[in-house]
């Protein structure tokens, strides 16, 4: 192998920092050592990676192309190295989990807290991801398990229904509509609306509901995350429609949650790669989150809790 892992590491560091000196600081080695290794790499590859002009480095087109390939490969090497260190330090292993952003506000955190209490020797890595990126996360092994607020249709994913819920209306405290037990879309259309952008699944759900109700509407503010809607409503910028899992049982201070008269249903799912056998850590987490869904964690939709749809 002419392009060795250490050479990739140094080349990547130079590309990231833009200089030999910056790469030396990043890798905690001397600047001459970086320069020598880059020169040796260019010689062994028979490829000029950088133009040098009065101490300034300019990557060649070939260097940019190579960097596109080195980046993901090196990140995977780092992931394997981190896994090896985890296996040595934590015999129980690790669990990498992702979820839709709105589920990170109220739904998933209690399950994570319970999991860590029961299995303190497991290292849990958790991040949020958009629905459009979830398949890439799972099939690229960046996550072992995903919790999605909407179903995913992908031939290489195993999708297991978890629970159902609904979209709800949120209003600032003292708003005239807050005195009603439920709010209609026609009433909301007369208010300043804060809605999900129509180019994301939540926005498409809400738009379809307005169309079914034959109600014309115009959004004053487009958002992509539920916490932005909650913060804007609390500040008095308008009213919003969000999923019930984002507001949870406690809600937001200064924000009132009301069910919609026109139902906009949701279906939570557990998602994993079809090519990976679920680890013991995944199986444990799945048991806990199913129980969490069964006991009805967050619920403000119609006068009922979100319904678990698992046996």
Automatic annotation (TrEMBL):
SUPFAM superfamilies: Periplasmic binding protein-like II, Winged helix' DNA-binding domain. Residues 3-60 form the HTH lysR-type domain. PROSITE patterns: HTH_LYSR (PS50931). The keyword Transcription applies. The keyword Aminoacyl-tRNA synthetase does not apply. GO terms for molecular function: DNA-binding transcription factor activity; sequence-specific DNA binding. Keywords: DNA-binding, Transcription, Transcription regulation. InterPro entries: LysR_HTH_N, LysR_subst-bd, NocR_PBP2, WH-like_DNA-bd_sf, WH_DNA-bd_sf. GO terms for biological process: positive regulation of gene expression. Belongs to the LysR transcriptional regulatory family. This is HTH-type transcriptional activator CmpR. The lineage of its organism: Bacteria, Pseudomonadati, Pseudomonadota, Betaproteobacteria, Burkholderiales. The gene is cmpR_15.
